[in-house]
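Task: fold both queries, return tokens.
Query 1:
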Amino acid sequence: MSFFSYESKFSQILIKLSYSCWLNMLWIICSLPIFTIGASTTALYAVTLKIADDSETNVTKQFFDSFRKNFAQATRLWLILLIAGIILGLDGYFVYHLRASSTGAVAVMWTLNMALLIGIAIVYVIILTFTFPLLSKFDNTDIAMLKNAFLIGVRYLFLTISVAALHFVMFYAVVVIFTPLILFGEGLVALLSSYLMINIFRVIAYQQENQEESE
């Protein structure tokens, strides 16, 4: 097989890199109104999970099909998470400064509050990490989607850490090392994350099918 033939490993890697670049551009454009970030992220993972499963066809069509299909629920979930994130960030800001300006027993109290907020922030990040990939693959209520995102993140802790590390590495690379990498940005992170998630999502889908058959 030729090194540059369509079926070669090298060509397939280049094709998937080009997909990630194009999907990243679609994700940025569709996220610009801010309140659509949830729908845009869901659409992004709907395509990258198909790529990881070797079942993609027309990536642009699949992106916008998912964007339209999941828009209402993804937007609701995103606004819930956005408001929660703002509240958590403000709490963290005030507690940090109150702790810094306090001494003695009061400082200890604010330190304990800060530790509690850090724990809540970890839970928040776990839920944020898995909510939209789950929404792109499964149908469920808003509460169940948030609950399942947390349970999956805790059960598959190595996966959670790996996905978080991918986001951090991309952010660091764009900001510190080579800014033009923003062309790949979230598209490449989502694609790599999808390869990590796909086997777990296959197991969940299989369990869901068996449960539906038994009912």
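Query 1 returned. Query 2:
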Amino acid sequence: MTENLSGLAEMRSQMASLGAQLRWGADLGLPVRDDPGGEILVCGMGGSGITGDFLAAVAATEGGRASVHKSYGLPGWAVREKPSVAVVSYSGDTAEALSSWERARELGLSVTAVTSGGELGENAARAGHRVVMVPGGYQPRSALGYGLSAVLRVAAAAGVISDPRPSLEEAASIADGLSGMEGEGMALASELAEAMAGRMVGIYGSSPLTAVASYRWKTQVNENAKRAAFWATMPEATHNEITGWDFPAGLARSQVGLVALRDRDEHPGVSSRFGHLEELTADRVSWTGEVWAQGSSPLARLISLVAVGDLFSLELARLGGADPMRVELIDRLKERMTPPPDSTDDTSRAF
């Protein structure tokens, strides 16, 4: 990437490539299995691991199932069920992902590594595992299109989902139209960011699609804008969080802003609850807006929300004077977790 751009401009440039990244994945030379019914476990952390959450949401719309593991090793059920495993680490040096890969190797599972290189790429290639190499040079969170499209193609090869290429092409076009350099999403993102002012950001979605989009918005606000944020899922929030805006008295009304992420295929009960929830809590917490998904396929609708959310986080960074490229606390934690050269502790590695 161009080194003389400011942090804001550099991150904006990376975000603008989302459509191109998705097209890259559509062109990957991976097969599509004709007999559906496979099972896959996606292992990874942060901007890499969220690809598993997106896959799970897409698979659910087709009646399929994908599982996600965001920790060291593998879940206990993997020993019995022996799923296909996709280990995703953009850097290739994420401690938890390397631990998951090692455990999958020990169990003799079918493993695919999705990475731009690093130790994961080297180890997987040496072990004879399939390696999908994605282009490097990005922040992991702004390389979502590479990791997600690769994971979708790997899942199709495992029979978990149908051929994702048509939906990847649609999603790429929508991404270009919203977050490309000439995209139309910035106006909406700016409007939402201005309405949020100095508030803590809350994002509400619903299962399966807009829940994962809400989580993506939350983490992008954290890393890009350096702001506290939270997310919640409907209809669950109407069974608990609805009662949580009373105390401290008046604090949520003045200091918290909520954004609702909506989808045309959300359950009618969810649609009704969104309306009632806003009416019942409007005097307790500020609802600053809602964003509706665009597109036909579930993947395209997800990407439309991702595109707006990414720009929203960037606008919050601009308004707050934050550098979206810098993540000092993550870097400091990484340093603390890196073992000395003579250490044999393999749980403390780079992210």
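Both queries returned. Flag for query 2: The mean pLDDT is 93.
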